[in-house]
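Question:
When you can, review this sequence-structure pair and walk me through the tokens.
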Amino acid sequence: MIKDQNIIQNRDNQFSEIVLMIRRTKSTVISMANTSLIDLYWQVGKYISNKIAVSEWGDGVVKQLATYIEKNSPDTKGFSDKNLWRMKQFYETYCTADEKLSAVLRQISWTNNITIMSRAKTEEERSFYIMLCKDEKYRLHLPDKALLQQKLRDIYDSEEEK
């Protein structure tokens, strides 16, 4: 009886290791996919920004591009004219950022990037929130402003205590 329980416990431990491997791999795959998508959005934003900057494209061309993508790749989602403009804004907001920040941009979700870009007023503020999202591993949505303000106060208080 005790031997059977030990066998069952041993198998449970072994099986748990497999489940842990599966979870780690899923997390890695999601992270790699996010990085690739952010890179794609950066490249699309850069392309649109450059075309508009040299007056090859007017504002209406972005809407035409969104329609073209929808027609020629109907399974592709997330490339509405509104999102294409966000990609342009994303590129233009961070194209002069330092390498460290550029690398971190690719580690947080598109939703967090857009939220930070639209809410943060200064480069320093954007930088802080991007690092916070990375460090705290916020996944889907940036927390509300009150929570972020509390986090800032906590950081400030801990710095004063040192």
Summary: Residues 98-162 form one domain. DSSP finds seven helices and no strands in the chain. The longest helix spans residues 2-53. The helical segments are 2-53, 59-72, 81-94, 99-105, 110-119, 123-136, 145-161.
